[in-house]
Amino acid sequence: MSPVGAQDRFVERLDRHRGILQKISSAYCSEPAGREDLRQEIVVQLLRGYPRFDERMAFSTWMYRVALNVAISYARRRRRTDARVELAEPGLIETLSASPAPPPDERIERILAFVNKLDELNRALMLLYLDDYPHAEIATILGITKSNVATKISRIKDRLKRDVAARPTT
Q1: How many other C-beta atoms lie within 10 A of the C-beta of residue 119?
Q2: 127, 24 in Cβ contact below 8 A?
Q3: What angle do CA 57, 59, 64 make, to 5 degrees?
Q4: φ, ψ dihedrals at 103, nearest 5°
Q5: 2 or 53, which is more confident?
Q6: Which of 28, 40, 114, 118 is the most buried (most CB within 10 A)?
Q7: Distances (CA, A) of 136 to 24, 61, 69, 102
Q8: With 50 as the cut, is the pLDDT of residue 89 above it?
Q9: What angle do CA 32, 159, 110 make, to 5 degrees?
Q10: 74: closest CA among 38, 117, 119, 126?
Q11: Is 43's pLDDT higher than 80?
Q12: What is the dihedral of CA 15, 19, 25, 31, to 10 degrees?
């Protein structure tokens, strides 16, 4: 495939799975400017890694893996310093990552607030779970066993039930 054709295919795939960028950036960064920085950084890493993308893998699985790795690194780096990351190719990156998502309803906000309190691995696990990824695919993306995925999800669900039960109703 020619470089232009590959770039068009990348943009098409990225656009189709744009929600992944929104979910991960929202889960790993609370302020709007930081979310935009994170989305841009994810797109940069996806663009850099795309020539090595294995077509036998689902694009969304690969995208999640790259995006989660970038988000976890970004969150750790932000905890150590507030320095902003300068990005290359800002025109293309802004075009690819700028798309407002509709505001979530209250139930989703409560679940995301809970998920945002989790450590990086469990947060990634729950984002994938909430997107209906099968346990085997979550295990592949996160580099853990399928049984570990099931155990962690069960424990997180129990914590969520306790958290919801402890909240006063409004």
Answers
A1: 9
A2: yes
A3: 105
A4: -65, 140
A5: 53
A6: 28
A7: 20, 11, 18, 30
A8: no
A9: 35
A10: 38
A11: yes
A12: 100
Q: Are 154 and 124 in contact (CB under 8 A)?
A: no
Spatial separation of the C-alpha atoms in residues 78 and 38, rounded to whole Å: 11
Stated pTM of the model: 0.65
Determine the Cα–Cα distance for residues 141 and 148; give it in Å rounded to an integer. Answer: 13
| Alpha helices (H) along 50-134 | 59-80, 90-97, 106-116, 120-130
Tokens 């129990």, located at residue:
158
Q: Which two tokens stand for residue 68?
A: 């989660």
The pair of three-digit structure tokens given for residue 53, joined into one six-digit string:
């993308």
Residue whose tokens read 């979550």: 138
Secondary structure element (H or E) that encloses residue 82, with its range:
none
Quote the tokens at residue 4: 């232009």
